[in-house]
Each structure stands twice: as structure tokens, then as C-alpha cells.
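Sn1-specific diacylglycerol lipase alpha: structure, please.
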Amino acid sequence: MSIICGLPVLECVYCLACARWVWKKCLHTSGYDSENWTLASAEEFEPVPRICRLILAVYEDDISNPQWAPPGGYGINPDWVILRKDYVDTQGCVAPYLIYLDHDHADITLAVRGLNLAKESDYAVLLDNKLGQTEFHGGYVHNGLLKSAIWVFDAECEVLMDLVSKNPSYTLTFIGHSLGAGVVALLTIIALHNQDRLGIERNRIRCYALAPTRCMSLNLAVRYSDVINSVVLQDDFLPRSTTSLEVLFKLLFCLPCLLCITCLKDTCTLEEKMLKDPRRLYAPGRLYHIVERKPFRIGRYPPVVRTAVPVDGRFEHIVLSCNTLSDHSIIWIERESQWALDLMLEKDKFMEIPAKQRMERQDSLAKEHSEEYQAALQRAIALDIPQTDLLHMVSSMK
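Here you go.
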């Protein structure tokens, strides 16, 4: 390969491909990804800042004596933590997680933390992706994350069953960040296919994946968008990374090859071909995009949150930005999501709405989401997304 890379003709091709790719990237900003989406409401976005703080709590060794608490604290009761498991307990099969019984919000929550850069086991899970070669419930998923999700379900199924039976009116929510986001997204699908075993209805199961890795094929991402929600902050690179991470690590020893493959793949692949690839992985579920920076302007602006269940144009391109890494941080997501929620509450005076009107708004929002969900399924069928017809029929029967 090194001999081929030294040929002058191919070096010129590399340069032209890279120049074209950089030119397109310089004109593309993350705001374009969601410019046609609708604005999220305070009712639907309200759980996100609280969820961020709960995920941050997983990083603490002792929640009763926190060392890294955000301003205002985590807002959780240590006595309501049902269990916590670290790397010793999970044997490296999954990142640390906890189960929290939230009586204030009538919710049973399982939270999984993100990638630990010092743990080899987390890299092993993330790199075991095989480009979506694992078939799962009519689609394809990330192999390593699926193994982790199965491990968590087998380990905690009895605990969740007990909590659900003792709290029959509570919801069951799976939350995670980065690596953990991919795990809980697939864990949610497993839970949905074991509703009878858990003793819970589909409309009481939810998932919030913050800065998720691409973990499921497009038909699965659309099908479960009524339950799974992904939150992406501005330029975050991980929900946009389509190249196999294993391939990227192997190609670090040949930078020209890496540049050539990345540029040509991102620039020359037609979107129609991307959509027809059943093994191509995507960010899961309904998407919430927090936009806080504007093109050619310096600094952060008051954030707005846009949401949709897109089929095409689903974070397809990496954005050239100095914030692609910082926007992946759970700390920044917590800060910006709380700021965005405060602005929403201030705008519509959510806290002053009478209970009856608030319930009516929630019912209206649920109806709108259901209509958008059905429209996304129809759009997938129109675009001839592989296996969407089958998934639509299965979904309609439920």
C-alpha cells in the first residue's frame, strides 16, 4: 500500500479529493442539518437536563459525597439508588451503570455512563462494530453494543421486573451518554421485545441517548423513534461518524490512505446509495438537535432545540469545527440543555399553565409525535428503505 501511495498521479488525486472535500465542509455547518425541523417544546424537552445530571452521577464514587457535581447538584436522592455497578461488577462487558427509582417523577431509570478513555474494555466494546454485520429484529446493529445491552438485560431483568411490579404506574427509562447511549438504545429494543416478561406496556418505556454513536440501521432507527430519543449538541462528531472506528485506528499508520478513503467516501457516495444500504448504521430514534452557534460568528448564542424523525439527511456529514470534541461532552450537553429549557419556560410561561391545559398540551404533543412517526415510516417506504414495509406492518399491528 505504501508503494501505491508514493505514485505521483495518485498523490494528485488525493490532493484534489481532499480539496473538494474541505471546500464542501467549509460551506457546511451543523445548523443546516436541522434547519427544516420544528422547534421542540418545553414539555417534551423537560427531562433532558435532569437526565444529564443523573448520568453524571454515575461517574461519582460516592453520590452522598459528590466531587464533580454541577451547579445546583445532581438533584437525586442517594436513598433512591437501587444499585450501582462498576467495571469490577460488569467484568468489562459494559460501562458502569446505576438503577434509580425516581419517586418525584414516577420513573424507574437505568443510566449508563460514557466511554472511559483509560479502560481497554470500553474500546473493545466500541471497536467491535463490524460495520453493522449483526442482524437484529429485522435490521442491523452495532455488534459490541448489542453484546453489552444483552449483558445488562440478563443481569438486571429480575430487578427491573420487581421494580415495575411494585410501581405499576411508573415509567421505565433507559438513559446513556456516548458509548452508554448506544447500549441503552439497543437495550430499549430488547426491553420492547420482552414487555410481557417485564410486565410493562410499550407506552411506558422510554429511552434518551445523549451524543449517541451510530448503532442501528435506518429501518430500526425510524421504527423505534416513538420510544427512543437522541440528543445531539451542535457539531458533535460521534453521531455523524460513519466510518468504522476499527478501520480508522488501523489506518492511522498511513495518513494519505486515511484521507483518501474518508474524503472519497464522504464526497462521492450518493445519498440514494446510502439509504439503500441496509447495513449502514445511524443515530437512533427521534432526534433533538441543540443549536447554539451561528455560521461565521464567534461565541455561543442562546440555544434553540429542533426536533424531527428524519429519514434522509440524518446527520450524514462530519462538520469541520473546533468544537466537534467539546460538543460531545456530557457537561456541555447538560449546561446547554438546561439553558435551552430555561428559555423555553420563560417564553411560554410553562410553570404558570393550569394543570388541565398542561395535560391538553401534552396530549396534543403526543398526537403530533404519533403523526410525525407514521409520516416517517411512510417516507421510509417511499424511499424504498430495505425491510421498511415489513417493519411498518409489524408496527401497525402493535
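Notes: The chain has a mean pLDDT of 84.
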